[in-house]
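In response to reviewer comment 3 from the previous cycle, which asked for concrete evidence that the modeling workflow produces usable outputs, we include below a single protein chain processed end to end. The sequence was submitted unchanged, and the resulting structure tokens are shown without manual editing.
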Amino acid sequence: MENIVRTNGWNDLQDKLFEDSWNPDLGRFRSRFAFRGLSDEKFKLETTLMRLGGDYSRLEHHLLRNFSKYAHQDVVEKDSIWHWLSVAQHHGLPTRLLDWTYSPLVAMHFATENVDKYDMDGVIWAVDYLKIHEKLPERLKKELNTEGANVFTVKMLLNHVETFADLSELACEGDFFLFMEPPSIDDRFINQFAFFSLSSQPSLALDDWLNDMKDCWRKIIIPAELKWEIRDKLDQANITERVLFPGLDGLSSWLKRQYCPRTR
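The workflow returned the following structure tokens.
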């Protein structure tokens, strides 16, 4: 697999995003890739917790503890660390979670939503979560196999991991990443076809960890000169802030971008 590729047009981008999606066991086109779109191809796969800076690993527990203390208890369906972490990530708290989507088109949206970066190349990361999960501790791999699942639910994860310390203990034979689907607590999760990657250690950046796993990821560069075309075609396909962020905030963001002059 060629890890870093550059697309040369709308059709070529579709081909690259849906490459290797054929599943012969199912006889269906079912991609096993997680997608993440970024407006600048130089951006790393760093979490919001990492971008907080300072001694962020030590602060992680305090951030989540205070979030759960001050938030209304009814914002989570169950008082567990993974329910709270999903909600906290959704509302902007720095966490070790990283946002991904099953949808290549949603990833394209996030790579082209920021018109202030249309002079820069964007990127879509595609990561094979099945191959990522081959590196999991045996206990977690067995959970996936027992459930016949490809990614974790919060309930599945709670069967083995209830705290950050539990997660670290499982990494005694090596650090790992896993992919988990959040509870469907908000239309944003549903409309964005969203899920998260979760690291065994808060200081572990996914792109650094992937350096030794060349067979499970691809970085698709979107040239700056293609962004307007991609953006206009996504808008016509109704892949917009109005849909992905239901409510007045998403509506306002969509309208602001729609009426932004091309000359900007």
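The mean pLDDT is 92. We consider this sufficient to address the reviewer's concern, and the full set will be provided in the supplementary archive.
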